[in-house]
Amino acid sequence: MDKPNRQPSRRDLLGARLPGDADRQENSAEEPKFGPLFHFSANAMGCEFQVLCTSEGRKALATAVTDGFDLIQYLEQQLSIYRPTSELSQINRCAFSEPTTVEPALFSLLQLANEICEITEGAFDVTATPLTRLWKSHRQTRSLPSQTEIIECLRCVGSQHLIFDSTANTLRFEMEGMTIDLGGIGKGYALDRLNEHLQSAGCTDFLIHGGQSSVISTGQRSDRSGNQKHPWQIAVTHPLLAKQTLATLHLQDQAIGTSGSGRQNFVVDGKRYGHIIDPRNGWPADNLLSVTVIAKSAVLADALATAIFVAGQPSANAICNHFNVAAILISNAGKIIETINMPDENIRLA
Predict the structure, then answer these.
(1) pLDDT tens, residue order, the chain (350 aa)
(2) What angle do CA 330, 331, 332 make, to 5 degrees?
(3) Does the reported pTM lie above 0.85?
(4) Best CA proximity match to 177, nearest among 147, 157, 151, 149
(5) Which residues, listed in sequence order, are joined to residue 48 by a DSSP beta bridge?
(6) Could you tell me the fold of the domain covering 87-173?
(7) Do the Cβ atoms of 329 and 340 come closer than 8 Å?
(8) How many CB atoms are closer than 10 A to CB 177?
Protein backbone atom coordinates (compact mmCIF):
# COMPACT_ATOMS: atom_id res chain seq x y z
CA MET A 1 0.00 0.00 0.00
CA ASP A 2 1.02 3.55 -0.66
CA LYS A 3 4.27 2.67 -2.42
CA PRO A 4 5.45 5.33 -4.94
CA ASN A 5 5.44 4.23 -8.60
CA ARG A 6 3.41 1.21 -7.60
CA GLN A 7 3.42 -1.67 -10.08
CA PRO A 8 0.20 -3.64 -10.72
CA SER A 9 -0.36 -6.20 -8.02
CA ARG A 10 -2.63 -9.16 -7.43
CA ARG A 11 -5.12 -6.66 -5.97
CA ASP A 12 -5.43 -5.21 -9.51
CA LEU A 13 -6.53 -8.55 -10.84
CA LEU A 14 -10.17 -8.61 -9.82
CA GLY A 15 -11.82 -10.22 -12.80
CA ALA A 16 -14.86 -8.01 -12.48
CA ARG A 17 -16.66 -5.36 -14.48
CA LEU A 18 -18.19 -2.86 -12.09
CA PRO A 19 -21.57 -1.15 -12.45
CA GLY A 20 -21.22 1.55 -15.04
CA ASP A 21 -18.99 -0.57 -17.25
CA ALA A 22 -21.43 -3.46 -17.09
CA ASP A 23 -24.40 -1.17 -17.70
CA ARG A 24 -23.08 -0.44 -21.16
CA GLN A 25 -23.44 -4.10 -22.05
CA GLU A 26 -27.01 -5.26 -22.61
CA ASN A 27 -26.67 -8.94 -21.75
CA SER A 28 -30.23 -10.20 -22.07
CA ALA A 29 -33.78 -8.94 -22.43
CA GLU A 30 -34.87 -10.21 -19.00
CA GLU A 31 -32.21 -8.29 -17.07
CA PRO A 32 -33.36 -5.08 -15.34
CA LYS A 33 -32.36 -1.80 -16.95
CA PHE A 34 -30.68 0.18 -14.20
CA GLY A 35 -30.86 3.90 -13.63
CA PRO A 36 -27.87 6.27 -13.46
CA LEU A 37 -25.18 6.02 -10.81
CA PHE A 38 -23.43 8.78 -8.91
CA HIS A 39 -19.96 8.34 -7.51
CA PHE A 40 -17.64 9.87 -4.93
CA SER A 41 -13.93 9.10 -5.14
CA ALA A 42 -10.62 9.63 -3.38
CA ASN A 43 -7.08 8.34 -3.88
CA ALA A 44 -5.49 6.25 -1.14
CA MET A 45 -3.42 3.08 -0.72
CA GLY A 46 -2.06 3.45 -4.25
CA CYS A 47 -5.48 3.32 -5.94
CA GLU A 48 -8.81 5.09 -6.30
CA PHE A 49 -11.52 4.35 -3.78
CA GLN A 50 -14.99 4.94 -5.15
CA VAL A 51 -18.49 4.92 -3.63
CA LEU A 52 -21.37 4.45 -6.09
CA CYS A 53 -25.04 5.06 -5.39
CA THR A 54 -28.34 5.81 -7.10
CA SER A 55 -30.02 9.20 -6.97
CA GLU A 56 -32.07 8.27 -3.86
CA GLY A 57 -28.99 7.85 -1.71
CA ARG A 58 -26.92 10.66 -3.12
CA LYS A 59 -27.70 13.27 -0.45
CA ALA A 60 -26.92 11.04 2.54
CA LEU A 61 -23.66 9.85 0.98
CA ALA A 62 -22.54 13.36 0.10
CA THR A 63 -22.76 14.23 3.80
CA ALA A 64 -21.04 11.11 5.15
CA VAL A 65 -18.42 10.25 2.54
CA THR A 66 -15.93 13.02 3.38
CA ASP A 67 -15.39 11.67 6.89
CA GLY A 68 -15.32 8.19 5.38
CA PHE A 69 -12.46 9.07 3.06
CA ASP A 70 -10.64 10.70 5.99
CA LEU A 71 -10.90 7.32 7.70
CA ILE A 72 -9.28 5.63 4.68
CA GLN A 73 -6.40 8.12 4.82
CA TYR A 74 -5.94 7.35 8.52
CA LEU A 75 -5.86 3.60 7.82
CA GLU A 76 -3.28 4.12 5.08
CA GLN A 77 -1.07 5.99 7.53
CA GLN A 78 -1.52 3.20 10.07
CA LEU A 79 -1.03 0.16 7.81
CA SER A 80 1.50 1.13 5.13
CA ILE A 81 4.92 -0.51 5.43
CA TYR A 82 6.23 2.15 3.02
CA ARG A 83 5.71 4.90 5.60
CA PRO A 84 8.35 4.75 8.34
CA THR A 85 6.00 6.59 10.71
CA SER A 86 3.13 4.10 10.36
CA GLU A 87 2.09 1.93 13.26
CA LEU A 88 2.83 -1.21 11.25
CA SER A 89 6.37 0.01 10.51
CA GLN A 90 6.81 0.66 14.21
CA ILE A 91 5.70 -2.89 14.99
CA ASN A 92 8.11 -4.31 12.42
CA ARG A 93 10.99 -2.35 13.94
CA CYS A 94 10.32 -3.14 17.58
CA ALA A 95 8.38 -6.38 18.00
CA PHE A 96 11.43 -8.67 18.00
CA SER A 97 13.13 -6.67 20.74
CA GLU A 98 10.11 -6.40 23.02
CA PRO A 99 6.32 -6.89 23.12
CA THR A 100 4.81 -3.97 21.20
CA THR A 101 1.44 -2.42 21.98
CA VAL A 102 -1.01 -2.51 19.06
CA GLU A 103 -4.13 -0.39 18.52
CA PRO A 104 -7.17 -2.61 19.36
CA ALA A 105 -8.75 -2.72 15.87
CA LEU A 106 -5.40 -3.47 14.24
CA PHE A 107 -4.71 -6.08 16.90
CA SER A 108 -7.99 -7.82 15.97
CA LEU A 109 -7.07 -7.66 12.28
CA LEU A 110 -3.71 -9.28 12.96
CA GLN A 111 -5.38 -11.98 15.03
CA LEU A 112 -7.80 -12.67 12.16
CA ALA A 113 -4.88 -12.92 9.73
CA ASN A 114 -3.21 -15.34 12.13
CA GLU A 115 -6.39 -17.45 12.33
CA ILE A 116 -6.68 -17.56 8.53
CA CYS A 117 -3.06 -18.66 8.33
CA GLU A 118 -3.67 -21.46 10.82
CA ILE A 119 -6.91 -22.70 9.20
CA THR A 120 -5.41 -22.63 5.69
CA GLU A 121 -2.26 -24.37 6.92
CA GLY A 122 -0.05 -21.44 5.97
CA ALA A 123 -1.47 -20.72 2.51
CA PHE A 124 -2.14 -17.13 3.62
CA ASP A 125 0.58 -15.56 5.73
CA VAL A 126 1.18 -11.85 6.37
CA THR A 127 4.82 -12.55 7.31
CA ALA A 128 5.79 -13.67 3.78
CA THR A 129 7.34 -10.29 2.86
CA PRO A 130 10.96 -11.58 2.55
CA LEU A 131 9.81 -14.07 -0.09
CA THR A 132 7.80 -11.55 -2.10
CA ARG A 133 10.74 -9.13 -2.07
CA LEU A 134 13.14 -11.88 -3.19
CA TRP A 135 10.95 -12.92 -6.11
CA LYS A 136 10.25 -9.33 -7.11
CA SER A 137 13.96 -8.65 -7.47
CA HIS A 138 14.41 -11.78 -9.61
CA ARG A 139 11.32 -10.97 -11.66
CA GLN A 140 12.97 -7.69 -12.63
CA THR A 141 16.06 -9.55 -13.90
CA ARG A 142 14.10 -12.49 -15.36
CA SER A 143 16.01 -14.97 -13.22
CA LEU A 144 15.21 -17.55 -10.55
CA PRO A 145 16.38 -17.30 -6.95
CA SER A 146 18.52 -20.12 -5.62
CA GLN A 147 17.07 -22.60 -3.17
CA THR A 148 19.58 -21.28 -0.63
CA GLU A 149 18.10 -17.79 -0.96
CA ILE A 150 14.58 -19.17 -0.55
CA ILE A 151 15.51 -21.18 2.54
CA GLU A 152 17.12 -18.10 4.09
CA CYS A 153 13.88 -16.14 3.58
CA LEU A 154 11.75 -18.98 4.94
CA ARG A 155 13.73 -18.81 8.16
CA CYS A 156 11.83 -15.66 9.20
CA VAL A 157 8.46 -16.47 7.61
CA GLY A 158 5.61 -18.03 9.56
CA SER A 159 2.74 -16.60 11.60
CA GLN A 160 3.36 -19.29 14.20
CA HIS A 161 6.24 -17.05 15.32
CA LEU A 162 3.83 -14.19 16.20
CA ILE A 163 3.12 -14.06 19.93
CA PHE A 164 -0.16 -12.33 20.81
CA ASP A 165 -1.04 -11.12 24.30
CA SER A 166 -4.78 -10.38 24.20
CA THR A 167 -4.78 -9.01 27.75
CA ALA A 168 -2.14 -6.36 27.09
CA ASN A 169 -2.87 -5.99 23.33
CA THR A 170 0.78 -6.59 22.51
CA LEU A 171 2.56 -8.47 19.74
CA ARG A 172 6.04 -9.97 19.76
CA PHE A 173 8.13 -11.60 17.03
CA GLU A 174 9.93 -14.81 17.93
CA MET A 175 12.27 -14.61 14.95
CA GLU A 176 14.61 -11.77 14.07
CA GLY A 177 14.03 -10.33 10.61
CA MET A 178 10.28 -10.94 10.60
CA THR A 179 8.12 -8.37 8.82
CA ILE A 180 4.34 -8.06 8.61
CA ASP A 181 2.80 -6.74 5.39
CA LEU A 182 -0.99 -6.37 5.21
CA GLY A 183 -1.07 -5.69 1.47
CA GLY A 184 -3.18 -8.82 0.88
CA ILE A 185 -5.79 -7.94 3.49
CA GLY A 186 -5.48 -4.22 4.28
CA LYS A 187 -7.56 -2.88 1.41
CA GLY A 188 -10.43 -5.21 2.27
CA TYR A 189 -10.16 -4.05 5.89
CA ALA A 190 -10.35 -0.42 4.73
CA LEU A 191 -13.46 -1.18 2.64
CA ASP A 192 -15.15 -2.82 5.62
CA ARG A 193 -14.37 0.15 7.85
CA LEU A 194 -15.66 2.62 5.24
CA ASN A 195 -18.76 0.49 4.70
CA GLU A 196 -19.47 0.44 8.45
CA HIS A 197 -19.00 4.20 8.67
CA LEU A 198 -21.45 4.91 5.85
CA GLN A 199 -24.04 2.53 7.28
CA SER A 200 -23.76 4.13 10.72
CA ALA A 201 -24.38 7.51 9.06
CA GLY A 202 -27.68 6.20 7.68
CA CYS A 203 -26.57 5.48 4.11
CA THR A 204 -28.25 2.61 2.26
CA ASP A 205 -27.98 1.04 -1.19
CA PHE A 206 -24.40 1.76 -2.24
CA LEU A 207 -21.34 -0.07 -3.53
CA ILE A 208 -17.67 0.60 -2.73
CA HIS A 209 -14.57 -0.54 -4.57
CA GLY A 210 -10.87 0.03 -4.02
CA GLY A 211 -9.06 0.26 -7.33
CA GLN A 212 -11.71 -2.06 -8.83
CA SER A 213 -9.87 -4.83 -7.05
CA SER A 214 -11.95 -5.31 -3.91
CA VAL A 215 -15.69 -4.65 -3.80
CA ILE A 216 -18.34 -4.51 -1.08
CA SER A 217 -22.05 -3.89 -1.57
CA THR A 218 -24.75 -2.65 0.77
CA GLY A 219 -28.43 -2.96 -0.05
CA GLN A 220 -29.65 -2.95 -3.63
CA ARG A 221 -29.74 -0.84 -6.77
CA SER A 222 -32.81 0.84 -8.25
CA ASP A 223 -33.94 0.08 -11.78
CA ARG A 224 -34.55 2.76 -14.35
CA SER A 225 -38.17 3.25 -13.27
CA GLY A 226 -37.16 3.83 -9.67
CA ASN A 227 -39.97 1.55 -8.53
CA GLN A 228 -38.02 -1.68 -8.01
CA LYS A 229 -34.67 -2.65 -6.57
CA HIS A 230 -32.37 -5.48 -7.54
CA PRO A 231 -29.06 -6.88 -6.28
CA TRP A 232 -25.90 -5.24 -7.58
CA GLN A 233 -24.55 -7.04 -10.64
CA ILE A 234 -20.81 -7.60 -11.10
CA ALA A 235 -19.38 -9.29 -14.18
CA VAL A 236 -16.54 -11.76 -13.56
CA THR A 237 -14.21 -11.52 -16.53
CA HIS A 238 -11.49 -13.72 -17.98
CA PRO A 239 -8.20 -13.09 -16.10
CA LEU A 240 -6.34 -12.58 -19.38
CA LEU A 241 -9.13 -11.20 -21.59
CA ALA A 242 -10.82 -8.31 -19.77
CA LYS A 243 -13.64 -7.99 -22.32
CA GLN A 244 -14.69 -11.63 -22.02
CA THR A 245 -17.32 -12.22 -19.32
CA LEU A 246 -17.31 -15.61 -17.63
CA ALA A 247 -20.17 -15.02 -15.19
CA THR A 248 -22.33 -12.33 -13.59
CA LEU A 249 -22.71 -12.21 -9.80
CA HIS A 250 -25.71 -10.79 -7.99
CA LEU A 251 -24.53 -9.14 -4.77
CA GLN A 252 -26.43 -7.79 -1.81
CA ASP A 253 -24.65 -7.01 1.47
CA GLN A 254 -21.66 -9.02 0.27
CA ALA A 255 -18.04 -8.48 -0.75
CA ILE A 256 -15.84 -9.81 -3.54
CA GLY A 257 -12.10 -10.39 -3.60
CA THR A 258 -10.02 -11.97 -6.36
CA SER A 259 -6.51 -13.34 -6.47
CA GLY A 260 -4.74 -14.33 -9.66
CA SER A 261 -1.52 -14.35 -11.63
CA GLY A 262 -2.90 -13.58 -15.07
CA ARG A 263 -1.06 -10.29 -15.50
CA GLN A 264 1.97 -10.29 -13.24
CA ASN A 265 4.29 -13.08 -14.24
CA PHE A 266 7.57 -13.75 -16.01
CA VAL A 267 8.99 -16.65 -18.01
CA VAL A 268 12.27 -18.48 -17.45
CA ASP A 269 13.24 -21.42 -19.67
CA GLY A 270 9.71 -21.66 -21.02
CA LYS A 271 7.99 -21.82 -17.60
CA ARG A 272 5.72 -19.05 -16.35
CA TYR A 273 6.15 -17.86 -12.75
CA GLY A 274 3.44 -15.74 -11.14
CA HIS A 275 3.87 -13.13 -8.42
CA ILE A 276 1.80 -14.81 -5.68
CA ILE A 277 4.22 -16.80 -3.54
CA ASP A 278 3.33 -19.90 -1.54
CA PRO A 279 4.60 -18.99 1.95
CA ARG A 280 5.03 -22.68 2.78
CA ASN A 281 7.68 -23.53 0.19
CA GLY A 282 8.80 -20.14 -1.11
CA TRP A 283 7.83 -20.75 -4.75
CA PRO A 284 5.12 -19.06 -6.86
CA ALA A 285 1.72 -20.77 -6.65
CA ASP A 286 0.62 -22.13 -10.01
CA ASN A 287 -2.38 -24.39 -9.35
CA LEU A 288 -4.96 -21.94 -10.71
CA LEU A 289 -5.18 -18.81 -12.84
CA SER A 290 -7.68 -16.97 -10.65
CA VAL A 291 -9.91 -17.34 -7.59
CA THR A 292 -12.85 -15.11 -6.71
CA VAL A 293 -14.33 -15.26 -3.21
CA ILE A 294 -17.71 -13.89 -2.14
CA ALA A 295 -18.01 -13.23 1.59
CA LYS A 296 -19.86 -11.09 4.11
CA SER A 297 -16.77 -8.93 4.63
CA ALA A 298 -14.18 -7.57 2.24
CA VAL A 299 -11.36 -8.53 4.58
CA LEU A 300 -12.36 -12.22 4.40
CA ALA A 301 -12.94 -12.08 0.64
CA ASP A 302 -9.47 -10.62 0.05
CA ALA A 303 -7.52 -12.94 2.33
CA LEU A 304 -9.35 -16.15 1.41
CA ALA A 305 -9.02 -15.51 -2.33
CA THR A 306 -5.25 -15.56 -1.87
CA ALA A 307 -5.39 -18.54 0.48
CA ILE A 308 -7.42 -20.64 -1.96
CA PHE A 309 -5.29 -19.56 -4.91
CA VAL A 310 -2.20 -20.80 -3.08
CA ALA A 311 -3.76 -23.92 -1.54
CA GLY A 312 -5.38 -25.03 -4.81
CA GLN A 313 -8.61 -26.80 -5.69
CA PRO A 314 -8.24 -29.80 -3.31
CA SER A 315 -8.38 -27.50 -0.25
CA ALA A 316 -10.93 -24.99 -1.57
CA ASN A 317 -14.09 -26.67 -0.30
CA ALA A 318 -12.77 -27.09 3.24
CA ILE A 319 -11.65 -23.45 3.42
CA CYS A 320 -14.95 -22.14 2.03
CA ASN A 321 -17.02 -24.29 4.37
CA HIS A 322 -15.02 -23.30 7.44
CA PHE A 323 -15.44 -19.57 6.79
CA ASN A 324 -18.91 -19.88 5.19
CA VAL A 325 -17.92 -18.17 1.94
CA ALA A 326 -18.50 -18.87 -1.76
CA ALA A 327 -15.82 -19.13 -4.44
CA ILE A 328 -15.25 -19.35 -8.18
CA LEU A 329 -12.14 -21.20 -9.34
CA ILE A 330 -10.66 -20.51 -12.78
CA SER A 331 -8.14 -22.95 -14.24
CA ASN A 332 -4.91 -22.08 -16.01
CA ALA A 333 -6.85 -22.62 -19.23
CA GLY A 334 -9.08 -19.66 -18.33
CA LYS A 335 -12.21 -21.71 -17.65
CA ILE A 336 -14.41 -21.86 -14.54
CA ILE A 337 -13.73 -25.33 -13.16
CA GLU A 338 -15.69 -25.11 -9.91
CA THR A 339 -18.14 -22.93 -8.01
CA ILE A 340 -18.41 -23.53 -4.26
CA ASN A 341 -21.36 -22.60 -2.03
CA MET A 342 -22.79 -20.46 -4.82
CA PRO A 343 -26.64 -20.45 -5.00
CA ASP A 344 -27.95 -20.54 -8.55
CA GLU A 345 -29.84 -17.28 -8.06
CA ASN A 346 -26.59 -15.46 -7.23
CA ILE A 347 -24.67 -16.33 -10.38
CA ARG A 348 -25.33 -16.46 -14.10
CA LEU A 349 -22.67 -18.20 -16.16
CA ALA A 350 -21.90 -16.71 -19.55
Answers:
(1) 554 433 333 333 344 567 655 454 434 445 668 888 999 999 999 889 999 998 888 999 999 999 999 999 999 999 999 999 999 999 999 999 999 999 999 999 999 999 999 999 999 999 999 999 999 999 889 999 999 999 999 999 999 999 999 999 999 999 999 999 999 999 999 999 999 999 999 999 999 999 777 999 999 998 887 788 999 999 998 888 888 999 999 999 999 999 987 566 778 888 888 889 999 999 999 999 999 999 999 999 999 999 999 999 999 999 999 999 999 999 999 999 999 999 999 999 98
(2) 125
(3) yes
(4) 157
(5) 43
(6) T-fold (1.10.3980)
(7) yes
(8) 13
Cβ neighbours for 111, distance < 8 A, ≥ 6 positions apart: 164, 166
Q: Are 49 and 212 in contact (CB under 8 A)?
A: no
Domain ranges of the chain: 87-173
d(CA 186, CA 299): 7
Plot region of 51 (φ>0 → left; ψ -120 to 50 → alpha; else → beta): beta
* Residues forming beta bridges with residue 170, ordered by sequence position: 101, 165
